[in-house]
Design a protein that fits this description.
Layout lengths: L3 E10 L2 E11 L4 E5 L6 H9 L6 E6 L2 E2 L10 E4 L11 H11 L4 H14 L15 H13 L5 E5 L7 H18 L2 E6 L2 H7 L2 E6 L2 E6 L1 H6 L4 H8 L3
Parallel strand pairs: 3-8, 3-9, 6-7, 7-8
Antiparallel strand pairs: 1-2, 1-4, 4-5, 9-10
Helix pairs in contact: 2-3, 2-4, 3-4
Bound molecules: adenosine-5'-diphosphate and magnesium ion (MG).
Adenosine-5'-diphosphate binds next to helix 1.
């Protein structure tokens, strides 16, 4: 488990200030959902936590360590994207083990990690299949498996369910919440869907134009929205 602590984070793209100044602490072991309308800076924030993008200024700590200048593989994080491009020519097993093989991990450890991830995600009977032989939900599980094998302290999800149909999305939400309970890892989950946020989060961060409008439990946001934006956004029909 690991806390993520962000202070005075700023991000500009050219002349555009996407995140003016952001302070946020994500508690260790929480399922924290970053929610806000399209274009408000959710992906930008997540990519900076991952180390895929550099802040213009500010500080960031993961598990007490300053991660400025650290590449993604040094941060103890793993990220799952919306478009989970699997390697089409590789089996499920090889897709899941790819990062460990790249890091030249011990083969016995690779086998054990893959077996563990497959068991958690109910992929054990499918390990020898290729992605094209899988359903959408199974492919998404493989993408999550690629994150799990790395034993990250922090999981980062960027709208991972938005390409799935409604029924599958509902099922995957439950599976991700169970995964969180089982692993106890810190999870930061980005979505523009307020219903998804309310269902899954133990803590919600509402973003608007790169600023935090409110942080609280789903019940707190629902009962006592602190700004008209939060009230409108949380209460809006989908
Ligand atoms: P969200 O994920 O909340 O939809 P993003 O973080 O993707 O929003 O984008 C926030 C804002 O930053 C948008 O206005 C977007 O156009 C801009 N932006 C994102 N990435 C870049 C980039 N690489 N260069 C210029 N502008 C960008
Ligand atoms: Mg985004």
């Amino acid at each position: 488990m690991a806390e993520v602590r962000i202070s005075k984070l700023r991000k500009v793209f050219g002349a555009v200030e996407v995140i003016p100044e952001l302070d946020l602490t994500v508690p260790s072991g929480s399922f924290t959902v970053l929610v806000g309308p399209s274009g408000c800076g959710k992906s930008t924030l997540l990519r900076m936590i991952a180390g895929l993008d550099q802040p213009s200024s500010g500080r960031m700590q993961i598990d007490g360590l300053d991660v400025s200048g650290k590449v993604p593989s040094e941060r103890g994080i793993a990220m799952v994207f919306q478009s989970y491009a699997l390697y089409p020519h590789m089996t499920v097993r090889d897709n899941i083990s790819f990062s460990l093989r790249l890091a030249k991990a011990d083969p016995a450890q690779i086998d054990a990690r893959v077996a563990e991830a497959a068991e958690i995600l109910q992929l054990t009977p499918l390990l020898d299949r290729k992605p094209k032989q899988l359903s959408g939900g199974q492919r998404q599980r493989v993408a999550i498996g690629r994150a799990i094998v790395r034993h990250p302290k922090v999981f980062l999800f960027d709208e991972p369910l938005s390409n799935l149909d409604a029924a599958l999305r509902g099922q995957m939400r439950v599976e991700l919440m169970e995964l969180h309970k089982r692993l106890g890892a810190t999870m930061i989950y980005v979505t523009h869907d307020q219903v998804e946020a309310m269902t899954m989060a133990d803590r919600i961060v509402v973003l608007n134009k790169g600023r935090i409008e409110q942080v609280g439990s789903p019940l707190e946001l629902y009962d006592t929205p602190q700004t008209p934006f939060v009230a409108g956004f949380i209460g809006a029909p989908r």
